[in-house]
């Protein structure tokens, strides 16, 4: 009897080729297109309709069933509400990581069980392999270095890996497009999405103004010692490391080095002030080993997706928090973002940046 797998299908080329590969491997594939966010503009409605239409066309072409499931309530509660709360507190969240934790590798598992599926699958560029020494499954970077998506997947649990299939993890992006073209999928040249899925124009300040009750108050630009430099236009307009758009000429380059939501202050400083070595992370998850079993370990870590991994020592502080000390100072470490850890190609885990020391 064929093993049954539930595949998330966005209508993009990656999940479409994943569907084809799973069928070729002999799985009974059930496609699911997830409705996640409310569309507030005509452009957003069009993009959602296009996604569902493209997913349906691929499903028909490959002769697999497709279910369109409405997860908008759960997505708002877990992802959007958290996004708004974090910005209100002067932090910069990563909603994709939250979505993967609670929706794509959380709620999706629950739905798969209801459908009687043995596995869940996605079009992520990452690989699941077994470590012969420990017997545990590990998550490794995708073959396509430019498209590797392990940074967003560090919250996956060991027991989940036993049921996750990532069919395109061993392929380069160009190869995935070639496969799609070869088998006659119209989405072979469809553009990759770059923006946050529920903010189609990537203007998060506009989104927060229109979709939250955040009170945007003017406040003070200050130096680290408290010296007042001028007025800011509301903390949601600023991110750590920002130089442009401050609205004031200071006579020298000034950067956002901290945001104090309680005092409604934006702290400015020099570029040198942005470099820090030590931080604290919370909600820590590790994959190759249980975090509870270790006290200290070395990894290569990065403080944002595009950063280069740098050597660091991780010291456990509690069951789900740790202190991280980099050998080399990192620029613009940002509260609310994720620190993600690697051992070569292996994803060790990660956590939310909670404090900078």
TrEMBL record:
E.C. no: 2.8.1.13
Q: Which InterPro entries does the UniProt entry name for this protein? A: MnmA-like (IPR004506), MnmA-like_C (IPR046885), MnmA-like_central (IPR046884), MnmA-like_central_sf (IPR023382), Rossmann-like_a/b/a_fold (IPR014729)
Q: What is its main location?
A: cytoplasm
* Stretch list, region Interaction with tRNA: 147-149, 304-305
Q: Where in the cell is it found?
A: Cytoplasm
What GO cellular component is one of the record's annotations?
cytoplasm
Tell me where in this chain the tRNA-specific 2-thiouridylase MnmA-like C-terminal domain is found: 294-353
What does the record give under GO molecular function?
ATP binding; methyltransferase activity; tRNA binding; tRNA-uridine 2-sulfurtransferase activity
Show the catalytic activity. S-sulfanyl-L-cysteinyl-[protein] + uridine(34) in tRNA + AH2 + ATP = 2-thiouridine(34) in tRNA + L-cysteinyl-[protein] + A + AMP + diphosphate + H(+)
**Where does the signal peptide begin and end?**
none
Report the domain of life of the source organism.
Answer: Bacteria
Q: What are the recorded Gene Ontology BP terms?
A: methylation; tRNA wobble position uridine thiolation
Q: What are the alphabetically sorted keywords of the record?
A: ATP-binding, Cytoplasm, Disulfide bond, Methyltransferase, Nucleotide-binding, RNA-binding, Transferase, tRNA processing, tRNA-binding
- Start and end of every tRNA-specific 2-thiouridylase MnmA-like central domain? 214-269
Q: Where is the active site?
A: 99 (nucleophile), 197 (cysteine persulfide intermediate)
- A Pfam cross-reference name: tRNA_Me_trans_M
Functional description taken from the UniProt entry: Catalyzes the 2-thiolation of uridine at the wobble position (U34) of tRNA, leading to the formation of s(2)U34.
- Protein name according to UniProt: tRNA-specific 2-thiouridylase MnmA
């Amino acid at each position: 009897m064929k093993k049954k797998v539930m595949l998330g299908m966005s209508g993009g080329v990656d999940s479409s080729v994943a569907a084809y590969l799973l069928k070729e491997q002999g799985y009974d594939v059930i496609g699911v297109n997830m409705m996640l966010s409310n569309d507030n503009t005509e452009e957003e409605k069009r993009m959602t309709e296009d996604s569902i239409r493209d997913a349906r066309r691929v499903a028909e072409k490959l002769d697999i069933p497709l279910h369109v499931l409405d997860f908008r309530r759960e997505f708002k509660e877990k992802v959007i509400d958290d996004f708004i709360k974090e910005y209100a507190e002067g932090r910069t969240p990563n909603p994709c990581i939250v979505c993967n934790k609670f929706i794509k590798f959380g709620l999706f598992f629950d739905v798969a069980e209801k459908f009687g599926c043995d596995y869940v699958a996605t079009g992520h560029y990452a690989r699941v392999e077994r470590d012969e020494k420990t017997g545990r499954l590990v998550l490794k970077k995708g073959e396509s270095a430019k498209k590797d998506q392990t940074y967003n997947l560090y919250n996956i649990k060991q027991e989940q890996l036993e049921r996750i299939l990532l069919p395109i993890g061993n392929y380069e992006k160009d190869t995935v497009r070639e496969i799609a073209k070869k088998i006659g999928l119209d989405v072979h040249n469809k553009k990759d999405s770059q923006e946050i899925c529920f903010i189609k124009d990537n203007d998060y300040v506009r989104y927060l103004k229109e979709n939250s009750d955040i009170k945007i108050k003017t406040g003070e630009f200050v130096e680290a010692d408290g010296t007042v430099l001028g007025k800011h236009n509301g903390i949601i307009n600023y991110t750590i490391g920002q130089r442009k758009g401050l609205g004031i000429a200071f006579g020298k380059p000034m950067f956002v080095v901290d945001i104090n939501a309680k005092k409604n202050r934006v702290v400015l400083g020099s570029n040198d002030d942005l470099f820090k070595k030590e931080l604290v992370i919370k909600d820590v998850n590790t994959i190759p080993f249980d975090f509870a079993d270790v006290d200290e370990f070395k990894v290569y870590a990065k403080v944002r997706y595009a950063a280069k991994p740098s050597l660091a020592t991780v010291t456990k502080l509690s069951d789900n928090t740790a202190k991280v000390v980099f050998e080399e100072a990192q620029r613009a470490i940002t509260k609310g973002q994720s620190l993600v850890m690697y051992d070569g190609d292996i994803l060790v885990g990660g956590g939310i940046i909670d404090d900078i020391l």
